[in-house]
Specification:
39% of the residues lie in helices and 19% in strands. The radius of gyration is 19 Å and the shape is elongated.
Length: 181
């Protein structure tokens, strides 16, 4: 009987710990982290502008992917603004030719902070829109869920990044591709 009690209590502790970890990840994905404005300037004159908005991830994978995409866009002659989603951002994206949205996926959930910002934008006309999701288990249409927040247009490109830091070169090339089209 003592052994059964020990196993039971151990099981309860493990389950409680797992639930706590899931809650921790889910909360971080929906937090408004505030302004984190970074501008990557192109070396070319008469540059166009691109906007990269991404929800930061716990292990910085989404951050690195967003920065690599931005680097590829910049190297094609764009000035790129990177920032986190949230109430601090303007709904007016008229000055940008390319708009990128990215979210980590935890427990099958995308960032509500990102999707709330996307819903506030009313005009995506004449924009190239790239949507990406990061996570090890992307198989439930998460990137499509992000795209549902684009009002009446469809994303130019949708990409899942499942391999963490191994996807950085791919992200850079995708940035170059969308900027070069």
């Amino acid at each position: 009987m003592r052994v059964i009690k020990k196993i039971f209590f151990t099981l309860i502790i493990v389950i409680s710990l797992m639930i706590s970890i899931f809650v921790w990840f889910a909360k971080s994905n929906n937090k408004d982290y505030g302004d984190n404005n970074k501008i990557m300037k192109s070396n070319r004159s008469n540059t166009k502008k691109a906007l990269v908005i991404y929800q930061p991830s716990r292990f910085k994978v989404t951050d690195k992917i967003a920065e690599k995409i931005a680097g590829g866009i910049k190297d094609e002659g764009y000035d790129v603004t990177l920032n986190y989603p949230g109430s601090h951002l303007s709904n007016d994206i008229s000055q940008y030719s390319i708009v990128v949205f990215g979210s980590p996926v935890y427990i099958g959930q995308i960032s509500s902070t990102l999707t709330d910002y996307m819903k506030r934008i009313k005009n995506y006309e004449d924009k190239k829109v790239l949507i990406f999701a990061t996570g090890s288990q992307l198989n439930n249409g998460e990137v499509d869920k992000i795209g549902e927040n684009l009002s009446t247009i469809k994303a130019t490109e949708k990409i899942n990044f499942k391999n963490g830091n191994k996807d950085e070169d791919k992200a850079y090339e995708i940035g170059k591709k969308i900027a070069g089209e």
